[in-house]
Write a structure and sequence with these properties.
Layout (H helix, E strand, L loop, with lengths): L3 H13 L10 E4 L13 E4 L1 H8 L4 H6 L4 H9 L6 H7 L5 H12 L4
Antiparallel strand pairs: 1-2
Length: 113
C-alpha cells in the first residue's frame, strides 16, 4: 500500500511552494533568476517528486547515489510503490509537467479533487 503520509507531505510542499517543484531536476539550488518561471527571482532548493520524497524522508540524492541506488528507485521504495509501474514512471519523469505530477501525487495521497 502506498505511503499516503509521505505522499501528503509531498503534495503539501509542491502545492504550497510550486516555485520549488521542478520535474526536470532531482534537486537544484535556486539562487538567481530562472527564466522558466514567472519572472520573479527565486531562492532555495527545487526538487521533483522523487527529490521531495527523499528530502522529506531525511534522505538526499547523494545518499541514493552513494549507496548505488537510482534516485527514482529509492523514492519509490520510500513511497511504497513499484518503481516500474507506469504511474510511478510517469510521476518521476522529466517529461511530465508539474501540473500532471501534482495530480498523480494527489491521487496517491488519497486527497479528493
Amino acid at each position: 500500500m502506498p505511503n499516503r503520509e509521505l505522499f501528503k507531505k509531498i503534495y503539501d510542499q509542491i502545492t504550497t511552494h510550486p516555485e520549488h517543484h521542478w520535474q526536470d531536476v532531482w534537486e537544484a539550488e535556486v539562487s538567481e533568476f530562472d527564466s522558466r518561471r514567472s519572472g520573479d527571482p527565486l531562492c532555495g532548493t527545487a526538487r521533483c517528486v522523487a527529490g521531495w520524497a527523499l528530502h522529506l524522508s531525511g534522505r538526499s540524492v547523494e545518499d541514493a547515489i552513494n549507496a548505488g541506488h537510482a534516485v527514482d528507485v529509492l523514492a519509490a521504495d520510500l513511497l511504497d510503490i513499484d518503481p516500474l509501474c507506469g504511474t510511478a514512471r510517469e510521476m518521476f519523469s522529466t517529461a511530465t509537467t508539474e501540473d500532471r505530477a501534482v495530480e498523480l501525487v494527489r491521487q496517491y495521497a488519497g486527497i479528493p479533487e
